Write the structure tokens for this entry.
Amino acid sequence: NAGVTQTPKFRVLKTGQSMTLLCAQDMNHEYMYWYRQDPGMGLRLIHYSVGEGTTAKGEVPDGYNVSRLKKQNFLLGLESAAPSQTSVYFCASSSLRLAGAQETQYFGPGTRLLVL
Amino acid sequence: TQLLEQSPQFLSIQEGENLTVYCNSSSVFSSLQWYRQEPGEGPVLLVTVVTGGEVKKLKRLTFQFGDARKDSSLHITAAQPGDTGLYLCAGGTNAGKSTFGDGTTLTVKP
């Protein structure tokens, strides 16, 4: 099992450019998440999905869009990149919660994005 | 918005010392998780605690969930250089998503 993979690993964009970050998981997980992590800060949830074809906003959704057309993939799009979106982006997945307990989130290695 | 505050933000100690990291909130969480993250990698789960007052031990690491399920602590005994990393707590909710603290950066010097 590869677990959670992210592509690309690193990208440099100019302000106004668009791009899509791809996350793939091979654990048949229902839940998938996109976070951003900035220096000195923890992980902030951008968007998440509780199943194929569903998406929901997280804590910091503005400037991002997501799609979950296939259960194993979760795409994060930036339509018009801004310098404030320079960050490290992490994707995670987890199985359905059981008995109210939070299931383990498995994280990808991250995508480092620099917007000039 | 449920907030988790971690303290201290930075901690630098010598090998062999003990340390405690705190994770506090004014909100109640259904569960609380601790993750460890190394540079250039994603966080990796250490433990999940779900019951108020619960204590879990993982070798030299002891995790405690507060009675009211609003706070947690991580205690490391006889820290080693391999314990160096960013420690994150995350509060779980019934909505299927977690709230992360800002993390504690631990450096253990040989």
